[in-house]
Here is the input.
Amino acid sequence: MALVVQKFGGSSVANPRLIKRVAARVVAQKKRGDDVVVVVSAIGDTTDDLIQLSRQITKNPLEREMDMLISTGEQVTIALLAMAIHQLGVEAISFTGAQVGILTDSSYTKAKILDIHSKRIEEELKKGRIVIVAGFQGMTLNQDITTLGRGGSDLTAVALAKVLRAKICEIYTDVDGVYTADPRIEKRARKLDRVSYDEMLELASLGAQVMQGRSMEVAKKFEVPLHIRSSFSNRPGTMIMKEVKAMEDIVVSGVTVNKAEAKVTLRGVPDRPGVAAKIFKEIAASNVNIDMIIQNVSRTGTTDVSFTVPQGDLRKTLEISRRVARKIGAEQVTYADDIAKVSVVGVGMRSHSGIAAKMFAALAAKRINIEMISTSEIKISCVIQRRFAERALRAVHQAFGLHALKG
Ligand code: ASP
Ligand code: MG
Here is the structure.
């Protein structure tokens, strides 16, 4: 029998009426003859609310206690969904991450999944039950509760789909699928019928907000077939799959903007071997993910090094950077948190040239200055002033003709 993993995000289970709708959809899938494992997020904005609650106690909670707190949101949803399915006369059973053996390391608030002991799930499926699993959470070997980073229910779903060898992992959300740009910013954005793993990985890590970045890494690595679709309709959404030749005809498939990063600059860094290693080693040791890095050409024996980090990690990064700066004899550390990163993504870039020039020209035409640039084989990103973010996205979307894209 085939197995389907269905994941429902916070907006899809935002209230009892919606939870009942999810129950009906899950039951319908089960009645079609599939085994069904359901992963759910916390209701609506529960996770944000819980974080807010903690802020009223302390600005600096222990991360272990943070996970104890924010993992509770999902536990509410699994129980309610199980009840809703029972109301429809179908057997279902809910589990926390720990109960179904989702083992993680102990990097609280962004734990990595080490292993999943799926035996319990398989037993329950064999009994004909629908299995409901709380997303976003796991447990360390010491039985401490961890969470998998914001949006981590996606990771739970993808990882379960992998270990259970699901035929499809359906990600139900409040949009119809993956768009060429955020439709709230660009009204003319088009839904994409299919996107390659590589593109989706880039889009997710760029802040497209449809899928958690890390979940896409796992999906790509294990080629977990994904279908991102709306929980409010039956229309097909976007399939995430291995790259096929025809995808290359589309040079750019998406434009994103990320306003959640900050830029840190070490000025007057002595230009000698090992300095960069020192800076970034210390930052990496504190679990901060660095995104772009730029080092200028040195002219006077010193150079400037700039890099971007998630805004939430700015304070920590500045502390470390100042310490390292003193150690290596750098002049000063400055930062900017009013930046935005605009990116274009497309596997077609591998076989087409002139993409960067076209993007820069589109920004120039709107008189938007580019502060940093980084590229990968299928992506070009520019850091600009945050106040130009929306304007930049629309300009680039237009320049690549994405409003007229088919499929
Ligand atoms: N509830 C968690 C969050 O808001 C996990 C998720 O929704 O995927 O980040
Ligand atoms: Mg999400």
Notes: The chain is about 35% helix and 25% strand. The radius of gyration is 22 Å. The chain has a mean pLDDT of 94. Residues 3-174 form a domain with the Carbamate kinase fold (CATH 3.40.1160.10).
